């Protein structure tokens, strides 16, 4: 493991220079929690040097998976350092303290998701257009620099005081495109991210998809499929039609914009840059749309906070009357009280630099103590309302976020485990592919060398032993004879002259003949030489040709052998990769199934728990019904007694005294009987009530169980369908790969054979 991978290690200078060396505790004050995410918390804070307000994301890298957390921090910091755009959050630096990175950035009022949470209703179309426009500009900037955000959603789109839109949370971002990791938040994930393992890669268009989902989120408060288990949502996205807006109140511009963003096939989906020209964004809208929205939200937050404040005040006053420690009935209020006290979270209206004491403390103290504190709180409250820095989250908003995180921790854990597994699988496959590629290169190199050896062996330059022989010619000489005496002198001299003349002539003739002879001989000789040379050359050429032929034959045999061994290796590699991939997909599917089954069990357990609660509460409602019946019975009894008394009086008046006794006895008997009937009726109606009540509850519960079972069954079927689709896709992919390889190999073979043929 390289040193920089170990959590907190600054050995690598490239990592060390990412962080400032100062102690952040000494540089920033007034920290108050304003957001809560998977890694920890985000704080409002003030820079003591400049008095500037900032946001600080504290990310711990201790405990479980600390090295992984450290890597994530380094990645996020590196990413933030690289980007600079009006529509992405401005980064100010990072500090380290006690196994926690303090990531300092510009302060924003809150996220688009906070807006939805405050208003509890969708945003207006022009507001959505303005937010989407800002976010899309940020995305187009990222994409033009080959980066991908990969976690676009309302919760990660922030708004500033002057109404700017900022992309935030680069914890999932990719510094390179294309990418292939399984990253993001399920409901917003593009289909190709979910299928990334099987089909390879994706690019910035995944952000365009998530932006489309975010539009639906802003228009309907939640992304599509949000009522579904995150796992099931994944399968849904991967294989169902793209979602659309539910209500018909939206314009065609908006619908069309979402349709374009949510094209399932990435090739059909426009780039972020192209989307910027869409009429939905280009349509005219007042400049003040976002400022008005922010003002509207601030007002609503203030209203909500005042409500909470009054509630709290009432509770405290009650407590004050009772003079005992806090024990409040209302669950909500208890929760608020706790959150403020123990978690040090603050009311949304963060106090600007001018205010003195934190509202957290004042509320806290007030809860613990007396009336005078309450007055103090009242004073503080006015300060809060006048403050200029207001976060767009009502009191308890942060607590809610934290609770959501804790409640879903089991599912979250499951999802992050699943994500981790998929990423590991991808890494594993890539490593395997690289390893095999290396092996292949090595193999090819070895074969090439072998071939070269053959070449060298035969190509030792053939020296043509040129058989040139030098040729020399020799010449013989003629001798003359002289005549005696004086007379003869003239004659002689004449003769001599003649002879000389003749001699000269003869000599010339001889010379000519000799020259002719010589020429002839020379030519003959040259011809012989030429023929000899030609023969030698021919022999040599033949020999060379033979050699070349042998070499070619050898080479071809070798090439064929190489081809075969290459082909064998290629097929083996393909098989290895495909086997590995199939195995990874199998374990992935196994995990998906286990997760889904666990989820199903959990849902059933929850329903059972709910039913037990209902059954436990049943006596309460029964008692009231019983009481009601009893009352009716009592009423009837009373009436009967009254009637009995009237009858008795009447009878006593109309009958002689002697018969009074008998009449009274009869009357008494009759009354007893009537009362007994009533009692029986009472019992009966009670029983009936009980049985129908129990029956109704059972029926309702049974119905609920049925619905749940059906829903879970459906989700399981969805998973099955998804998995078999993946399996089919993988099989098809494997087939395609094999076919392509076969084609490649046979083409290579054909070329080789052609070469061999031409060689002959
Ligand atoms: P996570 O990776 O856990 O989603 P985020 O970076 O998205 O973390 O931060 C979590 C929440 O904190 C955001 O949804 C937002 O409400 C708040 N937050 C983050 N950054 C800022 C900021 N610069 N200014 C104001 N609030 C912020
Ligand atoms: Mg986030």
UniProtKB/TrEMBL annotation:
GO terms for molecular function: ATP binding; protein serine/threonine kinase activity. Pfam families: Pkinase. Keywords: ATP-binding, Coiled coil, Cytoplasm, DNA damage, DNA repair, Kinase, Nucleotide-binding, Serine/threonine-protein kinase, Transferase. It comes from the Eukaryota. Its EC number is 2.7.11.1. It catalyses: L-threonyl-[protein] + ATP = O-phospho-L-threonyl-[protein] + ADP + H(+); L-seryl-[protein] + ATP = O-phospho-L-seryl-[protein] + ADP + H(+). Residues 339-370 are annotated as: Disordered. Gene3D superfamilies: Phosphorylase Kinase, domain 1, Transferase(Phosphotransferase) domain 1. Residues 342-362 have a biased composition (Low complexity). GO terms for biological process: DNA repair; regulation of cytoskeleton organization. Residues 28-281 form the Protein kinase domain. It is found in: Cytoplasm. GO terms for cellular component: cytoplasm. PROSITE patterns: PROTEIN_KINASE_ATP, PROTEIN_KINASE_DOM, PROTEIN_KINASE_ST. Its main location: cytoplasm. ATP binds at residue 58. Residues 422-453 form a coiled coil. InterPro entries: Kinase-like_dom_sf, Prot_kinase_dom, Protein_kinase_ATP_BS, Ser/Thr_kinase_AS, TAO_STE20_kinase. Belongs to the protein kinase superfamily. STE Ser/Thr protein kinase family. STE20 subfamily. This is non-specific serine/threonine protein kinase. It comes from Nothobranchius furzeri (Turquoise killifish).
């Amino acid at each position: 493991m390289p040193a920089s991978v170990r959590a907190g290690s600054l050995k690598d200078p490239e990592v060390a220079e990412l962080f400032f060396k100062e102690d952040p505790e000494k540089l920033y004050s007034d920290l108050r929690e304003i957001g809560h995410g998977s890694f920890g918390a985000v704080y409002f804070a003030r820079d003591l040097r400049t008095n500037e307000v900032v946001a600080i994301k504290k990310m711990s890298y201790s405990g479980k998976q600390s090295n992984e957390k450290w890597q994530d921090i380094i990645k996020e910091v590196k990413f933030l350092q690289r980007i600079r755009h009006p529509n992405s959050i401005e980064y100010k630096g990072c500090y380290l303290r006690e196994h926690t990175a303090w990531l300092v950035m510009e302060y924003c009022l809150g996220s688009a998701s906070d807006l939805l949470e405050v208003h509890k209703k969708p945003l207006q179309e022009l507001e959505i257009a303005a937010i989407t426009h800002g976010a899309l500009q940020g995305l187009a900037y990222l994409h033009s620099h080959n980066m991908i955000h990969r976690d676009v959603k309302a919760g990660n789109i922030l708004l500033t005081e002057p109404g700017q839109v900022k992309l935030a949370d680069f914890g999932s971002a990719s510094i390179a495109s294309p990418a292939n990791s399984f990253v993001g938040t399920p409901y917003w994930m593009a289909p190709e991210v979910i299928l990334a393992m099987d089909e390879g890669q994706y690019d910035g268009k995944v952000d365009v998809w998530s932006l489309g989902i975010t539009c639906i989120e802003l228009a309907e408060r939640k992304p599509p499929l949000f009522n579904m288990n995150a796992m099931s949502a994944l399968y849904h996205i991967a294989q169902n039609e793209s979602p659309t807006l539910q209500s018909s109140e939206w314009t065609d511009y908006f619908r069309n914009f979402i349709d374009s963003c949510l094209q399932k096939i990435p090739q059909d989906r426009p780039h972020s840059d192209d989307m910027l020209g869409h009429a939905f964004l280009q349509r005219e809208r007042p400049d003040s749309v976002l400022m008005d929205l922010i003002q509207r939200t601030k007002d609503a937050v203030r209203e909500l906070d005042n409500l909470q404040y009054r509630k709290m005040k009432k509770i405290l006053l009650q407590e004050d009357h009772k003079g005992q420690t806090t024990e409040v009935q209302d669950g909500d209020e208890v929760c608020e009280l706790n959150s403020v006290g123990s978690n040090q979270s603050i009311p949304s209206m963060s106090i600007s630099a001018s205010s003195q004491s934190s509202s957290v403390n004042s509320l806290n103290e007030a809860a613990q103590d007396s009336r005078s504190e309450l007055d103090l709180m009242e004073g503080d409250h006015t300060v809060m309302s006048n403050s200029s820095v207001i976060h767009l989250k009502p009191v308890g908003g942060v607590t809610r976020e934290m609770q959501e995180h804790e409640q879903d921790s089991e599912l979250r854990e499951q999802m992050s485990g699943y994500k981790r597994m998929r990423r590991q699988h991808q890494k594993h496959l890539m490593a395997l592919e690289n390893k095999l590629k290396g092996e292949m290169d090595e193999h090819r190199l070895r074969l090439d060398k072998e071939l070269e050896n053959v070449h060298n062996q035969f190509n030792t330059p053939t020296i043509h032993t040129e058989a040139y022989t030098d040729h020399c010619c020799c010449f013989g000489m003629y001798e003359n004879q002289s005549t005696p005496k004086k007379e003869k002198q003239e004659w002689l001299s004449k003769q001599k002259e003649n002879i000389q003349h003749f001699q000269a002539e003869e000599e010339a003739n001889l010379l000519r003949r000799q020259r002719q002879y010589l020429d002839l001989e020379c030519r003959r000789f040259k011809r012989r030489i030429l023929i000899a040379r030609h023969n030698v050359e021919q022999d040599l050429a033949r020999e060379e040709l033979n050699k070349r032929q042998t070499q070619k034959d050898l080479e071809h045999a070798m090439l064929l052998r190489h081809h075969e061994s290459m082909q064998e290796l290629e097929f083996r590699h393909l098989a290895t990769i495909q086997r590995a991939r199939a195995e990874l997909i199998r374990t992935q599917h196994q995990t998906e199934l286990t997760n889904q089954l666990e989820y199903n069990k959990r849902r059933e357990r929850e329903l059972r728990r709910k039913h037990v609660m209902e059954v436990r509460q049943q006596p309460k409602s029964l008692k009231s019904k019983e009481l009601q019946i009893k009352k009716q019975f009592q009423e009837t009894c009373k009436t009967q007694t009254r009637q009995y008394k009237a009858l008795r009086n009447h009878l006593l008046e109309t009958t002689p005294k002697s018969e009074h006794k008998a009449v009274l006895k009869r009357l008494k008997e009759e009354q007893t009987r009537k009362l007994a009937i009533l009692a029986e009726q009472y019992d009966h109606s009670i029983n009936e009530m009980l049985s129908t009540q129990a029956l109704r509850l059972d029926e309702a519960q049974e119905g609920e169980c049925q619905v749940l079972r059906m829903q879970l069954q459906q989700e399981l079927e969805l998973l099955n369908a998804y998995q078999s689709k993946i399996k089919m896709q993988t099989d098809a992919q494997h087939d395609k790969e094999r076919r392509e390889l076969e084609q490649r190999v046979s083409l290579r073979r054909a070329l080789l054979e052609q070469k061999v043929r031409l060689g002959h």
